[in-house]
Write a structure and sequence with these properties.
Elements (H helix, E strand, L loop, with lengths): L5 E6 L6 H7 L1 E4 L2 E3 L6 E2 L6 H10 L6 E3 L3 H13 L3 E6 L7 H15 L5 E5 L4 H16 L4 H11 L4 E5 L4 H5 L5 H10 L1 E8 L2 E9 L1 H18 L7 E7 L3 H19 L7 E3 L2 H7 L4 E7 L6
Parallel strand pairs: 1-2, 1-6, 6-7, 11-12
Antiparallel strand pairs: 3-4, 3-5, 8-9, 8-13, 9-10, 11-13
Helix pairs in contact: 3-4, 5-6, 9-10
Amino acid sequence: MKKTNFCVVSDGSCDLPEQTLRDKDIRVVHFLVSFDGREYQREGIDIQLKDFYQKMVDHPDIIPKTAAPSPQDFYEAFEGPAKEGQDIICVCISTKLSSSVQSAEIAAQMLKDNYPDSRVVVLDSLCATLMQAVYVLEICRMRDAGYSLEQTVTTIKELGKTARILFTVGDLNYLQKGGRIGKVTSIAGTLLNVKPLITLQDGEIHSSGIKRGRRKSLNGIIDLLIRYCRDYHCTPADCNIIIGYCYDHEEAVRLQKMTEDRLHETFGRKISVPICPIGATIGVHAGPYSIGYGVIRRSDRLS
């Protein structure tokens, strides 16, 4: 593989499949997860996502915990590129959700002591999961197009303002237990079979409406995606869009077809929307039946 202008590193919140990581030459620093608060395992290494979500489904009363990578974890990811003389862009989950950025910044300073000519830019993506995935992919697009480190950082900071997660959840219990909504709201939502429509923007969760029942909530997040395109005066082809799911792959496939049909009907052009699993970092807060989109404007489609 030819040497590029810089190396791309991301913490594990980006949730990109292994094949994509290899194809795009992205180094990942994994988060840790625990079901008992004592023994922590590396997500995707010591415990696979399928097993993680199966355990959540089998033991709904147990709320797992996550831990950010350590500075040493990031240092080990940085050292290889630094030895080869490459600069590094490291993308981390929003500081509003995790301490990952702080670990990466400590690692960058440690690296400077041993490799004084290396440059590491640590970016607080203000993102997570699918939203971070499309953010990282846009950085890779610019790297592969020959952008310099400085050009890429400037462009992605502007593009980051367009990044969103548009999603819904199976029930409100996990958001309630995580302090995102009140207990009374959670109980009422469960009794009424109400499904919230949620937007993650600038690292914060915002309510985007409610729907009664799962089918209507899926159509609701498709409506949010269409509204996003209209708000930015663009088409889906001008965006990088990913469907993410936690436990139910078959439902993700159904949403994929629903999405592609609606986008074709609305914008008059067929577009393929890929599917990828949502990792434990967000799954512990949103629950195993969360599903939705990560979306960002494409760096090569800006007018």
